[in-house]
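Feature request, filed as a ticket because there's no other form

It would be nice if the structure record came with a short human-readable summary line next to the tokens. Right now we just get the raw output. Example of a typical job, pasted below so the devs can see what we mean:
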Amino acid sequence: MSLKNRVRGSENDSVANQLIQSWEHDSDTLKFRRASSNFIYSFERNGIRHFLRFIHEEDNTIEKIQAELDFMLYLLANGYPTVAPVLSKNGNRIETIRAADNGCYYGVVFEQAKGIHLPLDRMTDRHAQEWGRSLASMHILSGAYTSGEAKRGSWLDALTFVSSVLQRHPCEEGARRELEQVRRQLSELPASAEHMGLIHYDFETDNIFYDEEESRYCAIDFDDAMIHWYAMDIVSAIADLTEQEEDNTQRKIEHFLSGYRSIKPLDECYVELFPLFQRFSDLYTFARLFRSVEDMDVQSSPEWAIQLKDKLLKVCDRIRERFRPTVELRPVDQSNWYTCTQLEVTDEQKNVFPVPVVYWLAESAYCGFTPLAMYTGEQLVGFAVCAIDPEDGSNWIMAYMIDHKFQHRGLGRSGMEELIRYMKEKHGCDKIVLGHRTENKRASNLYASLGFVEVGRDEREVIRELKISK
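Raw output as currently delivered:
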């Protein structure tokens, strides 16, 4: 949901008060609960709690909501515990209102889920196993589900949405690279009905309630459901567990997976693909958060919305860090020295990096420098040389380059950060020194952003130092 619509939809509870008139309800019981992906209000009907959920037309379509409800009704008809949508006074499961100067809102009412919310720190091994069994049981039913006219989107639709958001933010180069890689790798996976179907996508503890009497979970909030690999549902379900560092975290994950496998097979090859599905989740979350803060008028927004925007952008910053490629430094030896000599900068860069790699290899051999090859995966992408000045013991980066075929991918920054880490660990140095041509603005900006401070210059070269904290 966009922050703009979150502000408009929560003003004076006016939208909720309009929508609730379409359902039977006890007067003066409507109460705001939260607003995230949807607005959620509780109310009572004949003394029994129900929930009103609604969303603006810009944030969802009535067709997607209908497809969500169709799947939930299918699950209920087949004995799977979820919450039932309640018919309105007009006999509809979805009601629409038009707010003054604010577009349409779509509302749905659900019964209250049976059971209790069970947070991770209160979840026993048995609870974790039942959690996995519950998700697998839903996947079994999903495999036999035939949707009606209203259909949920797929993982490809989600990536198309990501692409549309990134087109409005051309500076997000890392996210665009990640999008293409994730799309390509997912496209190469088998799309058989055995491993793929309609998934919940948000089967975490906030959306399941444990019924102790029946020893099973009741699932709610299917509004993110999409056609995807079932393994994606597992990854999103246990995402909070994988981020924890408690001693029993891995045991809970193992019990979750054993519970899942007791109902539905889970090939080990799909477990090995968990990191890929997590990358999809990161990318989709990143785009959704970015989209949510677009077009927000800070000047007219309440303070809570401004603070929330800052919080969401910080989450985007953390996710953005994961889009940066990983660079590994390896020694230059008989297996890769010749390949290193084939590395080149662009023709335009040869005036600021005029010395070929073969020269640096020769000088390293005779002057005691350390040449290093930079890899991402098994692909050689760059080259660096570091050395210790015999006179004062200072640590120097003598040469640093990314091959022209691999530039503009974030490798320059990732490689330099890895080189700094390498020199700090290997030599325990308190500062690192380097030089670059005065006209090399890209290098100047990169080094400055990493903390290298200018300490000297002449007509040809700028000298910079990075202080290393112990």
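Something like this underneath would help us a lot:
The mean pLDDT is 91.
DSSP finds 16 helices and 16 strands in the chain.
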